[in-house]
């Protein structure tokens, strides 16, 4: 992420416009190339922070726009890993030196020349960050770096964002699902408004934002931007507070921003692959459907099931939502929602980490005992047998209605 | 039935019709169209619950996730000093919500232990630095039969009594804000900043105690502190405890003269810097002056030279050779005493550390060494400690009797806190002395005037 001093923008009140770099500019590409080479080579040769800084300073100063060059350099620094300096046990050397200097001081010696000798000829503070060595650098192409820079400019402005508004047009379900998952992942909230059949407007902010402007969620909003950029047709507006002024940032596909968030749709984790295989073997009555839709829970509550199943006999669809250890907040709310809307075709798997014991599990259903049969406990990832049992109970209860 | 839940640092209230909330509670509740339910600030939890009870609105409280600690007891008896008992009584009288202003060394931590022992409920203690985090945890485990949780400095161990840095609390409060009944904000003048205030706002704790030696704040920040912690309920000035609870002290200002070459370099660089300020029309009376200056340096011709000149003249004024030799004189004058040397920046601290072979404590110092530096200083193995800002607040080093302020900001708070480091009583300590080194004829003279505007300095 860029720091404030790296941000380039123009203010034409009430708007604030990032000054994007031209990724096709040859001098800019040369600058990016040189810096990438510096850091790649620096990692191979274990250069120190200080050496890297001196070398990158030379490159940055020779570029006509120092701020652009410093910003690009910052993004590369973020991709570096540093390890402690030389093979010297500095804490031990320091302790030795301090004890010697303490002994001299106790004899009334305060001459700098004498006290300095206690260090034994080494720099006592030779392990400060400046002396750390570059041990690893995550490489990237010149084009990726320049795209990353252009995206980092509005992201940096969003660190001062108070709220933002997103218009999504012509989005299909899978695009929408990915975005909503990101909103949820970054613990943001949205007020959704359908505008006609093809547009959804979302006001995005955090739970506390209702009590007044707060920059608390600014980092989360900044992190959401690459997910927004991945949409096909979108318009994004944010209120940015800079120097006591509230300015408007507007972005759209016309800015040609490129997301660095990888499309993870193609990646299937091993446990899910295994679940699919065993489920197919063990279940003659149910199949896993390829498409898992979003469920409308009402009152702006959207449910993102993890898997969907179809009964081969009745054609009934049932969805499975998993609550892992990092989902504590939503669980009791979901149980309450199911109690209110028992027709939602949903079963729930709960990570054992969320309940202390069986009594804790039972306590979850104190107000809605009828929901208990829709839920079960799992460790890390649910087993197929337990899932099939839950599906069986779901089918039985829906048949009895 | 109305149900109250803790949700991401707020209270979500479901079951109330959109236009049917009791009028008495309307100032606390906002209807949230995003969820179709009411929402309240977590910090208004106690008031909200009282409001539901008063208005006889049936409700179910799913927000609170703590219970009384019946097994908690003192391992070591505390015999409070009169001023500590007075502070506790005043805080209780203020319904267990309020700020206690006591000078450094007057035993604020002990007061907090008394408050925890009185309430026997889970407590979250906010502190500004990792050193204080370690110190508070040690204190909790010394006085109570309980293991203390730590949040910050690489640790994420949340327990019934947990100490957290403000920074770590800010990251975690939306998840843990419902697990504590008592919120203690140490050095609570840090709480009202635009970010830190959420640590108070997103916690439901009905009982709140703010502790500070210097709670004076701007009007806006005072209002935030009153809202989140309660008003100042006890204020005992430094002069009231000096000579009894606190050591007697002297403050000596020493003006040092820059050497001929340094004085010339200072003037030369100062002229470049001030000429640039005039050209760029930067007014240092404005709040954004510093960032305006940096932006101007990047934008205008001569900016880089101006920035370099600014840094050079500041370095000469803060850590010129005359100051270094004066430090040696002062050390000679206090044989066998424990001395803390304060600087305004890390560079100056490390320069002094290298020249005298002395331990330097900054935010770069790793936890293990930090601990060993402080222990060795307390035991007397290391008689001198150099620090930039990390020892400014709270850290308990009662053995220190001499402070040398080599350089500092114009902040009254920083200066009072630095004085506070040497005021604690310790066996064999009769008198504390704070030296302030000022480079004559430099901008430091005006900075020093600004930071000395406190009764603690006007007294001597």
Radius of gyration of chain A, Cα only, in angstroms?
Answer: 28 Å
Tell me which CATH architecture of the largest domain in chain B applies here: 3-Layer(aba) Sandwich
Characterize the largest beta sheet of chain A: strand count, sense, and whether it forms a barrel.
Answer: 5 strands, antiparallel
Unreliable runs of chain A, pLDDT <50, ≥5 residues?
A: none
Number of domains of chain A: 4
Strand content of chain B: 15-25%
Could you give a short account of the major beta sheet of chain B? 8 strands, mixed
Q: Order of helices and strands of chain A, N to C?
A: EEHHHEHHEHEHEEHEEHEEEEEHEHEH
Please write the CATH class name of the largest domain in chain B.
Alpha Beta
Secondary-structure-based class of chain A equals alpha+beta
> Helical element count of chain A?
12
Order of strands across the biggest sheet of chain A?
6-7-5-8-9
Beta strands of chain B, count: 19
Describe the protein in words.
The complex is a heterodimer of chains A (401) and B (460). With 401 residues, chain A is an alpha+beta fold. Chain A has 4 domains: 4-84 and 131-149, no CATH class; 90-126, no CATH class; 159-255, 2-Layer Sandwich (Alpha-Beta Plaits), CATH 3.30.70; 268-399, Trna Endonuclease, Chain: A, domain 1. Chain A is built from 12 helices and 16 strands. Chain A has helices at residues 26-44, 49-61, 66-77, 90-106, 112-116, 142-158, 173-185, 218-229, 270-282, 328-340, 358-363, 384-399; strands spanning 9-12, 15-18, 80-83, 133-137, 161-169, 189-195, 199-205, 234-242, 245-251, 286-288, 295-298, 301-303, 307-311, 317-323, 346-351, 375-378. The mean pLDDT of chain A is 88. With 460 residues, chain B is of the alpha/beta class. Chain B has 4 domains: 2-61, MutS, DNA mismatch repair protein, domain I (3-Layer(aba) Sandwich); 82-236, P-loop containing nucleotide triphosphate hydrolases (Rossmann fold), CATH 3.40.50; 248-257 and 320-458, Rossmann fold, CATH 3.40.50.300; 260-318, no CATH class. Chain B has 17 helices and 19 strands. In chain B, the strands form 3 sheets. An 8-stranded mixed β-sheet of chain B has the order 9-8-10-7-11-12-6-13, with helices on both faces. Chain B has a 6-stranded parallel β-sheet with strand order 14-19-18-15-17-16, sandwiched between helices. In chain B, helix 9 runs antiparallel to helix 11. Chain B is globular, with a radius of gyration of 25 Å. The N and C termini of chain B lie far apart (64 Å). At the A-B interface, helix 4, helix 5, strand 6 and helix 10 of A face strand 1, strand 4, helix 10, helix 12 and helix 13 of B.
């Amino acid at each position: 992420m860029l720091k404030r001093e790296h941000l380039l923008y123009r203010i034409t009140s009430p708007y604030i416009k990032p000054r994007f770099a031209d990724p096709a500019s040859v001098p800019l590409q040369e600058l990016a190339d040189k810096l990438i080479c510096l850091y790649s080579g620096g990692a191979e040769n274990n250069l120190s922070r200080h050496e890297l800084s001196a070398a990158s300073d030379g490159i940055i100063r020779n570029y006509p726009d120092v701020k652009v060059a410093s910003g690009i350099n910052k993004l590369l620094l973020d991709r570096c890993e540093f390890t402690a300096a030389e093979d010297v046990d500095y804490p031990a050397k320091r302790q030795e030196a301090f004890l010697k200097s303490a002994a001299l001081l106790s004899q009334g010696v305060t001459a700098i020349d004498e006290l300095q000798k206690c260090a034994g000829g080494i720099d006592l503070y030779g392990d400060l960050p400046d002396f750390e060595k570059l041990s690893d650098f995550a490489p990237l192409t010149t084009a990726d770096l320049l795209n990353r820079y252009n995206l980092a400019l509005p992201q940096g402005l969003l660190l001062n964002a108070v709220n933002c508004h997103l218009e999504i047009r012509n989005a299909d379900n899978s695009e929408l699902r990915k975005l909503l998952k990101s909103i949820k992942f970054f613990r943001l909230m949205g007020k959704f408004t359908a505008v006609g059949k093809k547009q959804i407007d979302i006001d995005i902010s955090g739970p506390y934002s209702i009590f007044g402007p707060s920059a608390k969620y600014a980092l989360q909003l900044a992190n959401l931007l690459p997910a927004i950029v991945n949409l096909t047709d979108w318009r994004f507006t944010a209120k940015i507070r800079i120097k006591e002024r509230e300015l408007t940032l507007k972005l759209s596909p016309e800015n040609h921003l490129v997301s660095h968030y990888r499309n993870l749709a193609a990646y299937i984790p091993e446990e899910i692959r295994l679940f699919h295989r065993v489920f197919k073997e063990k279940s003659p009555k149910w199949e896993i459907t390829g498409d898992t839709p979003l469920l409308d829970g009402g009152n702006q509550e959207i449910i993102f099931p993890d898997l969907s199943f179809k009964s081969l006999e009745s054609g009934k669809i049932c969805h499975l939502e998993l609550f892992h250890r990092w989902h504590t907040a939503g669980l009791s709310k979901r149980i309450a929602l199911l109690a209110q809307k028992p027709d939602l075709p949903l079963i729930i798997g709960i990570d054992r980490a969320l309940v202390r014991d069986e009594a804790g599990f039972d306590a979850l259903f104190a107000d809605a005992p009828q929901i208990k049969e829709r839920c079960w406990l799992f460790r890390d990832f649910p087993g197929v047998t337990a899932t099939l049992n839950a599906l069986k109970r779901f089918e039985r209860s829906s048949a009895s209605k | 039935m109305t149900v109250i839940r803790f949700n991401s640092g707020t209270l979500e209230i479901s079951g109330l019709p959109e236009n049917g909330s009791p009028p008495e509670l309307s100032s606390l509740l906002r209807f949230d169209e995003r969820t179709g339910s009411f929402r309240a600030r977590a910090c208004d939890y106690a008031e909200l619950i009282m409001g539901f009870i008063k208005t006889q609105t049936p409700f179910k409280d799913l927000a609170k996730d703590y219970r009384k600690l019946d097994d908690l007891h003192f391992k070591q008896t505390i015999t409070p000093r009169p001023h500590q008992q007075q502070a506790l009584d005043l805080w209780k009288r203020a319904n267990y919500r309020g700020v206690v202003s006591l000078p450094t060394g007057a035993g604020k931590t002990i007061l907090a232990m008394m408050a925890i022992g009185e309430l026997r409920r889970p407590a979250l203690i906010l502190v500004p630095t990792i050193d204080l985090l370690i110190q508070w945890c040690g204190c909790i485990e010394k006085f109570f039969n309980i293991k203390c949780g730590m949040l910050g400095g690489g640790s994420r161990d949340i327990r019934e009594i947990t100490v957290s840095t403000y920074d770590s609390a800010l990251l975690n409060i939306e998840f843990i804000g419902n697990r504590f009944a008592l919120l203690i904000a140490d050095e609570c003048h840090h709480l009202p900043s635009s970010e830190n205030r959420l640590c108070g706002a997103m916690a439901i704790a009905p009982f709140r105690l703010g502790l500070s030696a210097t709670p004076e704040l701007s009007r806006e920040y005072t209002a935030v502190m009153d809202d989140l912690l309660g008003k100042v309920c006890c204020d005992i000035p430094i002069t009231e405890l000096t000579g009894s609870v606190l050591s007697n002290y002297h403050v000596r200002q020493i003006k040092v003269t820059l050497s001929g070459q340094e004085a010339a370099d200072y003037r030369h660089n100062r002229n470049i810097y001030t000429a640039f300020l005039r050209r760029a029309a930067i007014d240092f009376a404005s709040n954004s002056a510093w960032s305006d200056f940096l932006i101007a340096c990047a934008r205008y011709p001569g900016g880089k030279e101006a920035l370099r000149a600014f840094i050079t003249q500041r370095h000469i004024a803060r850590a010129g050779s005359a100051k270094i030799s004066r430090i040696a004189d002062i050390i000679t004058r206090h044989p066998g005493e424990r001395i803390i040397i304060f600087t305004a920046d890390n560079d100056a601290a490390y320069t002094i550390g290298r020249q005298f072979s002395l331990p330097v404590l900054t935010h770069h110092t790793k936890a293990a060494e930090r601990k060993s530096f402080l222990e060795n200083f307390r035991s007397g193995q290391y008689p001198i400690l150099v620090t930039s800002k990390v020892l400014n607040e709270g850290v308990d080093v009662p053995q220190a009797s001499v402070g040398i302020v080599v350089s500092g900001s114009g902040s009254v708070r920083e200066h009072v806190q630095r004085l506070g480091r040497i005021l604690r009583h310790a066996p064999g300590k009769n008198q504390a002395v704070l030296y302030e080194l000022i480079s004559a004829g430099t901008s430091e003279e005006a900075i020093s005037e600004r930071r000395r505007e406190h009764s603690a300095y006007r007294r001597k």
